[in-house]
Amino acid sequence: MTNVTPFSPPLYMQRYQFVVDYVQTYRPRKVIDFGCADCRLLKKLKFHRDCIELLVGVDINAAALLKKRRTLAPLMSDYLQPGEGPLTIELYQGSVTEREPYTRGFDLVTCVELIEHLELVDVESFSEVLFGYMAPAAVIISTPNAEFNPLLPGLRGFRNYDHKFEWTRAEFQAWAQRVCDEYGYSVQFTGVGEAHGCWRDVGFCTQIGVFQRNYDELNWSTSNADRLEPSVYRLLYRVVYPSLCDNNIYHKTLLNEVVYEAQHLRQEWLRSKNTDPYNNPHVHYYPLADAVQHGAVGGAAEQQQPVYQQGGDICVPLSCVWSSPRVKALCGSLQCLREKLQDDLVMRLSVDGMVLILPAADEDEELEEKKEEEEEEEEEVKTGVADSAKEDWDEELASYGNA
Ligand code: SAM
Q1: Which of 84, 227, 278, 310 is the most exposed, having the fewest neighbouring CB atoms within 10 Å of its CB?
Q2: Which CATH number does 11-240 carry?
Q3: How many other C-beta atoms lie within 10 A of the C-beta of residue 222?
Q4: Helices then strands (H, E): number in the chain?
Q5: What is the pLDDT of residues 43-81, one digit of tens each?
Q6: Minimal CA–CA distance to 206: which of 188, 193, 187?
Q7: Strand partners, 112
Q8: CB within 6 Å of ligand 1 — which residues?
Q9: Which atom number of ligand 1 is nearest to the Cα of residue 64?
Q10: How remote is the CA of residue 244 from the centroid of ligand 1, in Å?
């Protein structure tokens, strides 16, 4: 017996990272994590929006899911910069030994440290449900390698009180090979957490099987109706992330970016004007009629024109705003940007739609802020509820939901 140095990063992180690496390589669209417990793997996977569109967690323990469901909610940054693709996250209470029609047609199912919590008889139903009934394109199963146990300091018996068994590599591989033969899969074995020196040949601390379905994609279109409403599992949480696929969100995001960029250009212009109003080489001051002649309005589409002032307004040509990489990424062409803004009632645009018109004076902003503050105060007096109190209510409602 020898002491094993603690794993770094910790073993559970290495298991999650294994799945994350797999996702980055094979880019599954629909993923289920079986036995997701406190949703830690899901929390990592939700950042892979370039491929994952539906992320589902299933666990028999509803309390664990309810306790942690909020960790899967969108962050402020998800609203400020919505992802391009859609993402829905759902949590279900259910058993992996039950057939749930909703779970068919997924690209990847992960079972991280789950099967050793099942009675051996349930491992049989689990195998049929997973590989026979759900038949996902790929499955990742991790489980303790019993041969490694003598290297774990102070361990007597199984690694966890709830484990029903812990398999040697031969046992795990025999089970895996049998389900592959039965259900048309192939499997590769690997793991995380290596022993060193003379202990190397005990294998990984966590053994992992990566299964691939051998036959072509199944057509689940006939079961679409089933898929809409899970019939066996109980839905505990569903969240749809803001995404640019949603037209409203796309439009709001584009407007935010345009306003941000235009305001930034306006501020710069005002700053430079304050140092020397009419002799600054970077800015131009001319009436609108002259602006057309100068090419600031309606000039060559891609040519960047200067910001200029007209009366009490600062005029920001769309071509200036177009130089923002975020605006470019959101809108394919300057013409497209112009069309999208022309439909908007909030934006003030020149007649030809090529120039954004913003007030020169900051007073407007100050007045607006003051008005908003006054309105908020009035609202609080009317309802007798301050924002902080509203939050307390939210908390209380949430705790009822958790009960
Ligand atoms: N996969 C998670 C991870 O690696 O962090 C947690 C694994 S935890 C050790 C095992 C989880 O499997 C528990 O949350 C337990 O509730 C769940 N579980 C046990 N039997 C189950 C069953 N029949 N169906 C679904 N989940 C089950």
Answers
A1: 278
A2: 3.40.50.150
A3: 7
A4: 14, 12
A5: 999 999 999 999 999 999 999 999 999 999 999 999 988
A6: 193
A7: 142
A8: 12, 35-37, 40, 58-61, 64, 95-97, 112-114, 117-118
A9: 14
A10: 34
